[in-house]
Every structure is written in C-alpha cells, then in structure tokens.
Design goal:
homodimer, 191 residues, Jelly Rolls
Chain lengths: 191, 191
C-alpha cells in the first residue's frame, strides 16, 4: 500500500524515500467492512480519511428520514467532515464504507505535527483542498443548473467507471432520486 | 490597506513586517466600480481576487438566461473560478463587483513564485482552501436539505449583516428566487 501513497504524494510534491519513511508513522491503516461507519452524526470528526483501496461515502439523514449521499471517495481521495474536523464540533454527517476498504487515517493532532515537521506537506494539502474546492464550485453550479436527470447523464458521461462501480441505490441517493426513479431513467436511456 | 491584509495573514501564519514587505509586490491593487466584471464566461480565469474593501459575486447564466449567483465575497475573502485558474480552461462563470471595491489581485505565475519563495504562504492558502471547502460541504448539504425559504431563513439567522448589505435582487439570485418571490417571503416574515 505504501507505494501507492508514495506515488500519489509524488504527483504533488517532491519527496524522497527517507522523508516518506518518516511521514508514514503519522498514519494508521484501518480496514473497514462494507456498510461499516467511520463517522456517525453527532460525533466530533477527529480524523481525516484517505482511501487506499475501496470506496467511502458521506451522507446525512434528511428531514424525511432518508439517507442523502453528498460525496463519494475512491482510491487516492481524502474524505472528512472538514468543518467538524477543524472546529471540533459535532458532525451532521455519516461516513460509511461502500465496499470493504483499506483506509489511511490521520487524527488532527498528528496531522498538525506532520505539517509542522514537514512543511512541504502543507503544499500537498493545499493542492488537495484546492482541487476539492474546485470540484465543489462546479458541483454547486450543477445543483443549481441541472435537473436530476441531466445530473445523472453528466455523471454517466464524465464518470462512467464510477456509475458502474457504485451500487445503483447509492447513485440514486447521491442524485436525490428514489431507486425506482433511477431504474425508470436507466430503462428510458436503454430503449 | 496593507495593514488589513497583514492582520488577516497573521490570523493564519506567523509573519514579520520584513517578510510582508517582500510579499506585497506579488500583488496588484485594482479598483472596480459597482457592476464591473473582473471575469466573463469563456475567458480563462488567470487571477485570484482578495477583497480589501467592497463585495464581489460569482454567477453564471443559467438555461433560462437568468443570472444565478453562486458565491459572494466580502472583506478578507478570496474569489476565483478555481478550476479555470488551475487548469487554464475557459470559465463558465462571471465575477462582478456588487459595490465599488478595492481588490488585491495575484496572477497564477506570481502566486506560484510567491509560494516557492515563501513556503509559509502554502500554509496560509491551505487554510484558505480548507475553510472554503468546509463551507461548501455544508452548502451542498443545505442545497439538498433546505427548501429555498428555509435557506433564506438560515441566511438571515447566520449572516444578518450580509442580508442587510447585499441588494435584495442579488440575495434572490443567490437563493434561486425571483425578486418578487423574495419580497413576498419578507412580507410574510414581517406580518
């Protein structure tokens, strides 16, 4: 696993193997089973998660008691409730494994220590948050601009591997559909 | 103006006056008049904007030809189309002054040079993007969870100074209302 994380870091910063060996102990590797929760509503989100293998999703329980998925993270993506993590306030979200997954976990104290000892990691996380923010700026545009059907088509066109990989009821939960309605759209597209 | 930016930086990083004097030349100060565009759809967004005084908004023209506001930035906030800025692709957005404003502007090349010469600025921008991303995670939750009326109430409760400051037709554009519908809601709340 460590090779994959090393390669990922190298996409953003120059890092040698000695530095990498010193960085690695700041993280823990956690294995989670499909549908296991890494975070539950009301808890303080004390950790930041990086997907080595598998898939996570973030959701909240909406007014109607339905799970509304807001994010997915596959290999090489970070996931946390950023506001709860930074401010140490109770989260409104759940983070759950979509598949059996292998996750790199870092707590806030260790992350701060890592950033102090290895300032180049600031550059890495600056890129990570910059890209996450860029994606969310577009996401907000789509939420205003697209009908749910258009958003589904956009997803199929831009992330076909993702639509194949994630169970359809979770794609429906991400789009704000019922699974039945998603089935209907898929059948329409096929006919 | 430079004192305000210095104080702002000091909220995030330790910086002395000599360093600050070396950092300042990387930026330009630009004065824009109310309704002047800093960015237009189709352009490549080459600059990152920091509001010293005034207010900016970001919007796109939706399918119905209507301006849909997605973000505002007041004093001490950055604004750019992050994806266009990073990838040098044409933007789907406009950035426009809501009030006569004084803006600190940095282009991508200068920002990269600044980050190389002053690595501590990486830490500053990591915080900036982390907070922007945290806010957008909650924003996406609200877009799924709140009716437009609930979102308006949330805005009034959490950012009353903002609802007072920004013209009502732009608050309507941010919420996805018509200005008439916002008037109706405001009248209902008052009665």
């Amino acid at each position: 696993m460590s090779q994959a994380f090393y390669n990922h870091l190298e996409n953003f910063i120059k890092i040698n193997e000695i530095e990498f060996a010193s960085i690695l102990p700041f993280f823990k590797i956690v294995k989670v089973r499909k549908k296991e929760n890494l975070l539950k509503e009301g808890q303080i989100c004390k950790t930041n998660f990086f997907v080595l293998n598998g898939c996570l999703r973030m959701f909240f329980i909406n007014n109607k008691g339905i799970e509304q998925t807001t994010e997915f993270a596959i290999e090489n993506w970070w996931m946390t409730d950023t506001i709860s993590y930074e401010r140490e306030t109770p989260t409104a979200f759940y983070i759950q494994a979509v598949e059996d997954s292998e996750i790199l976990v870092i707590d806030k104290h260790s992350q701060e220590k890592l950033l102090t000892e290895f300032p180049k990691i600031e550059r890495y996380f600056r890129f990570i948050y910059q890209r996450a923010y860029a994606a969310s700026q577009m996401r907000i545009k789509y939420l205003y601009d697209f009908t749910k059907e258009e958003f589904y088509d956009h997803l199929c066109e831009n992330h076909p591997e993702f639509v194949q990989r994630v169970p359809q009821y979770l794609i429906a939960s991400f789009l704000g559909f019922t699974p039945e309605y998603l089935s209907e759209i898929r059948n329409k597209r096929r006919s």
